Amino acid sequence: MLPKSSLAAGPGTEVAEILLNAFVTRGHSHFTGVPCSLLKGFFRLLEDPGCPAAYIPAPREDSALGVASGLAVAGARPVVLMQNSGLGYSLNVLTSFNLIYDVHLPLVVSWRGHGGNDAVEHDVIGRELTRLLDVFGLPWMVLDNAHPEDSVEAFLKQYDDGRSTAVLIVREGI
Length: 174
Hints:
The chain has six helices and six strands; from the N terminus they run αβαβαβαβαβαβ. By secondary structure, the chain is of the alpha/beta class. Strands 2-1-3-4-6-5 form a six-stranded parallel sheet, sandwiched between helices.
């Protein structure tokens, strides 16, 4: 659990804390990824010296998947964070390594462009995100910020039970 003095400020902070604590409680020890404005509170928590998990920044999403895959093969329980455009960029790594060799990871993916109210470069991936995940057989769930405990618990159960790469989509900033 995060010490009270380490809590990040801002909207969505409580949801970010719940998410982080749920992962850590379930044994996830390492986080890696590329920052996104919708996940900034979560990244603030990871960067805090009091964070109970290791955070390894990544320059690109495919690099984050590589780091997390290596950690998973070595026995750690990593989590990868990225925005949906980075997921699109990383599909080759997922399909040519993770899904083929059963190196499954939980992914936390921000949903930029959802509803068409974002920068224009996020429109296509924002509109097609869930269909893209379905095409590649990646189970997904949208984080419910109003009931984050239930949402995170259901996601982690889905991930743990299926032992497959699963995606938790963050639609609202945390």
